[in-house]
């Protein structure tokens, strides 16, 4: 059953993104930013963690999870270190993902020939 709920929730997040691009005519960059902000707002309201508990990877894999991670890290570090923790918490939680994207992007550029 967890696979079905992950598929449905992850699919709905993707459908929302596709609707934003097709119907609302947002660019992919605007759509991605909107989904990150939506994940951040949902985490700020306390609604994203129950969604993760229900859907598992269906809620942690899409881009909305990045917004969730930003807010979650900032709030946790703000409790521990005060106001400066807001900035350090954002970098501490998301640095592994951003570093991996940069490193894998570099290796992909070595393997594939870009068109242009």
UniProtKB/TrEMBL annotation:
Lineage: superkingdom: Bacteria
Record Pfam families: SpoVAC_SpoVAEB
Key words, A-Z: Membrane, Transmembrane, Transmembrane helix
TM annotation in the entry: 83-112
The protein, known as: Stage V sporulation protein AE
Gene: spoVAE
């Amino acid at each position: 059953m967890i696979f079905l709920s992950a598929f449905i929730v992850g699919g709905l997040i993707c459908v929302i993104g596709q609707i934003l691009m097709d119907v609302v005519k947002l660019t992919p960059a605007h759509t991605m930013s909107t989904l990150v902000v939506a994940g951040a707002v949902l985490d700020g309201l306390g609604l994203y963690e129950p969604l993760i508990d229900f859907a598992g990877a269906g809620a942690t894999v899409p881009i909305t999870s990045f917004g969730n991670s930003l807010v979650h890290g900032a709030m946790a570090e703000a409790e521990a270190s005060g106001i400066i923790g807001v900035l350090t918490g954002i970098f501490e939680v998301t640095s592994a993902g951003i570093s991996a994207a940069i490193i894998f992007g570099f290796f992909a550029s070595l393997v594939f020939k870009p068109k242009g």
